[in-house]
Amino acid sequence: MTTDSVPTTAPPAFRVRRWLLPSALAEELDPDPACPGGRPRRTARDWLVDFACFLCAVALGLLAADGLADEPGLSNAMAAADQWIGAAAVAAVWLRRRRPVELAVAMVPASFLSATAGGAALVSLFTLAVHRPFRYVAWMGGATIALQPLYFWLRPDPDLPYLGVVLFGTLLIGAAASWGMLARSKRQLLVSLRDRARHAETEARLRAEQAQRLAREAIAREMHDVLAHRLSLLSVHAGALEFRPDAPRAEVARAAGVIRESAHEALQDLREIIGVLRAGDSDDAGRPQPTLAALDTLVAESRRAGMRVTLDGRVTDPAAVPASAGRTAYRIAQETLTNARKHAPGAQVAVSVTGAPGDGLTVTVRNTPPDGEAPPVPGSGQGLIGLAERTALAGGTLTHGPTADGGFEVRAWLPWG
């Protein structure tokens, strides 16, 4: 299990290529810290597109102005007014990013009154389709298309038939609107993909943090299960020596031997747990995980420490017990024996393990009332809580509480098959 830190923020993905994107899109994908909350600065691409739109409006306006001389019934004053309106409309193209809706509204009457404003009207409709939802495009485009038959009826083209020129103008308006909506959909797709990537990065970070938290909890449980048993032996025998300094020499020597052995085993367990952490996998590194067969060794160790413990094992096929159930049963017995040693010194402890495939595995640890008084041993109070969590993770149930005769009982059921 590794506890490497996970970066909390993703590196910006478009900072190097920001000048290639439209300013609005670049601001959504990668906000510029230089202008927080304000209008995004124009990128190089914005300037190129703006110049291209301006030149397009100028070119279409010049083409329309060249045809004014051939338009029948158009006076010089009307032609001059047409060109002045067209020039103002072309100049207004530079406002297309700041005021797309207002520009499109103004271009509807301007394009109806002036032929040279037609290019600017197409640019404004394209800009509206890029920056605003479809309903704006539908209103402005529909109004412009509705005025086309009236416009060409009042100002017919000398070279093209009436229906042909109306159809051609409608197709130009539809093409400009469609092109703008296509550009808008591509922008929205890029933003959506970026949002999905950010959400995926956030979910991955949360999963990594959860894995780290679960790993820490597993380490804490393992430290408690392994070391609490050893250290409780140290505390009990050291307390006995403190309260009975005049004990027989043989008893003092036996207690000192248990203390030395328990301290050595605690250091060995701690070294192995640290090795597990360094190896990064608690199941494959360090010492082997305990199984149900290790209960005999655990009970024998408790007896050597002076406890009165009996073990009743009635499992039909111990070799067939799942590894997770056997390990959980061992940890339950280990923790309850540690608690009995600390809180019920001198009591008789009975450990019972029964079960069969399909019926589950039942572990019962019961102790009689304590025999006399003993020096208090501090405890964290989390042992039974940890056992309940461990049992629940294994799919079983755990109950505990005092018995009628003043003792204490812990009973757990674990699934098997």
From TrEMBL:
It catalyses: ATP + protein L-histidine = ADP + protein N-phospho-L-histidine. Its EC number is 2.7.13.3. Gene3D superfamilies: 1.20.5.1930, Histidine kinase-like ATPase, C-terminal domain. GO terms for cellular component: membrane. The chain crosses the membrane at residues 47-65, 103-129, 136-154, 160-182. CDD domains: HATPase_UhpB-NarQ-NarX-like. Residues 216-280 form the Signal transduction histidine kinase subgroup 3 dimerisation and phosphoacceptor domain. Keywords: ATP-binding, Kinase, Membrane, Nucleotide-binding, Phosphoprotein, Transferase, Transmembrane, Transmembrane helix, Two-component regulatory system. GO terms for molecular function: ATP binding; phosphorelay sensor kinase activity; protein dimerization activity. Pfam families: HisKA_3. This is histidine kinase.
